[in-house]
Amino acid sequence: SDDKKSREELLAELSYLRMENAFLKKLEALTREQPAPKKRKSSRR
C-alpha cells in the first residue's frame, strides 16, 4: 500500500515534485514578466 513506500521511493518522489514545483514557478514568473499578446496575426509558414 501507499503507507509502505520505501525511503528511496519517497525521496525520489520528493525530488521529482520539487523539480516540478520549481519549473512551474519559473514558468509563472516568465509569463508574468512578458505577458503574451492575446491576438497576433502571425501565421507561421
TrEMBL record:
Recorded superkingdom: Bacteria
Protein source organism: Phyllobacterium brassicacearum
Protein name: Transcriptional regulator
